[in-house]
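pls read this protein.

:::
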Amino acid sequence: MKVKLLTHTKDPEKTVAAAAKLCYSKSDISTLMDGLTDEKVANFLEKLSNLGHCYDGNTEVLTKDGFVKWPDVDENTEFAAIDPKSRDFVGFEKATQLFNYDYDGEMVKISHHDVDLLITNGHKIYASISRGSKLRVHPEYSLIPTNYTLNTGKKVWESPFRLVLSAKNSNYEASNADIIYKLYGFFIGDGYASDKLDKSSIHFHLKKERKISYLENLCKEIGIELKYNANNKYSIKTDEFYAGKFRKMFYNEKGDKTFPLSFLTMTSSQFNCFIDGLLNSDGHYCGLGKNMEYSTCSMELVDRLQALCSINNSNCSCTVAHNSDGVRSSCYRVYFYKEKSLFPMINDSRTRDHANAKVVNYSGKVYCASVSTGLLVVRRNGKVCLCGNCSPLEHASFTFGIEGVSRSFLAQISRHRIASFSVQSQRYVDMDNADHVVPKEIYDAGYSAVRLYEESVKNSFNNYNELKEELTKKYIAEGMKESPAKKKAQEDARYLLPEACCTRMIVTMNARELNHFFNLRCCNRASREIREVAEEMLKLVYPVAPHLFKSAGPSCVCGACPEGAMSCGRATEMQQRYNAIKA
């Protein structure tokens, strides 16, 4: 295995410092760069490690536990990470860095019917600048600093732009079993499960013919029996759908309706079934049939519905129908907009109150978290949108040449989306005499394990060569010339190549993604091959930019181990190891 640092941003630390200072300075870029001495860069980057482009304390962020206010997050919080290129919900992950500090300065306040944000000036918003008819009709979204100066001379926050209210669920896997989510949704709206009644049944009290028909058809589709009792009451009794399960899943400790937080990771098919069941219970059309409304007395249900919709390409908002008066509980109306745009226009001169964004003075705590994708889901005053976690570290990039690694390694490193890869192609390169990787674990297992491994790999290469020859003959017989026939045979035979087959690649990552990469892949729980490569990469970049990679390494180097019961228990040893690397 060989790792080489091929190239990197010139003066990476100075570039990052200038990028960060630019957010708050009136100086031009050349003046900023010229005024940054090595000492000033070091001092500023030390300060920068404790600062971020952040949100106020009244903003909430979407986590594995639903929406949580920024002051309540900690190192164990898992944040919803969104891919800014595709708007796909990537999954929940722990932050590579948390920010929490006192701030006295300018904030950008965005007040719109659909959006409420209060962010430090220079924070990156996920927006499309609406300049020209083309971008108004076909917006292009990216992470843009609010104080970036456009060619019009105006800052981004002063200009018309569109924001995004929801991420997309990229898990499109569908199954016939997903239909059960319709029953889940319908039960939340119209069902009940009481331990005072038949404990093995769930019950429904239905009068409207459309609801009865929906439940009857649903039960037939699932293959369960719906029993009519009396007085418009229905029940379902099977081994699978016992009342205890539904009480546990769909009631909280107060007895209010809810659903499990695990539903936040449901597939898009399950989401569509779930919302269909919910809206066919207590839902109805409103707004000339364009939107749907659902009423509930459970604030927890409202909160979780909004979280669920925010990562399923849906816009969900809530109003209070009436507050609790001591006799009646508070009632909430939840609106699911079928045709309402997920992309509201801010500072739209065509509207009466078009100046939706302004700069205000602020003094107090601000918060943020850094995730691998740079894009979060936030909510303020009940209004959800996608917004960035700005990182000047993105302005410094590093390119590596990596050789002598397995295709298994390739599968792991390519999961890091915020990176660029160029990989040796098995389609165009003949693997006849390719090397292969023998994992240390195989060597450690002894002679018989190594022999079995080597024989298996050799057989794979032999089969590859034999199949390649057979296919070449076939394609020539079919009329192809020898050279293209060999190329096509090589392409088709590559499926026999083992994971152990060596490959080489060129990889480019920015400093923020590299820190995230080191955080995950230097950990003892990562596979040995990628861990060794990550460590070599760190040894190469640290001398070039020690302040940028001051905290680089596994999570336990600069904080608590996030692995819980799966921890290797060697935090002290790892801290000593990585301190020695950086010495």
User: Anything to note?
Assistant: The chain has a mean pLDDT of 87.
